[in-house]
Amino acid sequence: MFTLEDEDITVQSGNLDHIRCFARDVPGANVQRLEDTTVQSGNLNHIRWFARDVPGANVQKLEDIIIEAVNFDHIRCFARDVPGANVQKLEDITVQFGDLNHIRYFARDVTDANVQRLNKLLTPKPTYDNFNAAMEII
Length: 138
Fold this sequence. Notes:
The protein has about 140 residues and is mainly α. It has 10 helices and no strands.
């Protein structure tokens, strides 16, 4: 049986893998405290993994931290990996910044992405010059 002392030792170790596993595996663990410790680390991978792995994690809070970091790889991975993530919100943020590579990767990697919408953004719009060039080929 684990005790509060075991949780203290786990937190004091600073080992984010152990903290996440303790929160996930130990009944009665103080998930909020362990989540806060993970957030304080600033490690975006561990924040995402905590949201993904720990029942009772505050997914919305952790998602907001990922968004605030403005790291599109982490935004995409959060949308892809975390049950309960607001995929539409994360997609909208990715689109808002307009980087075509990030939009392409989001469409490719996130199962619940609106691929039709994203593909429209990725398809180049025909221009008058392109039309004339195409007509010359014909």
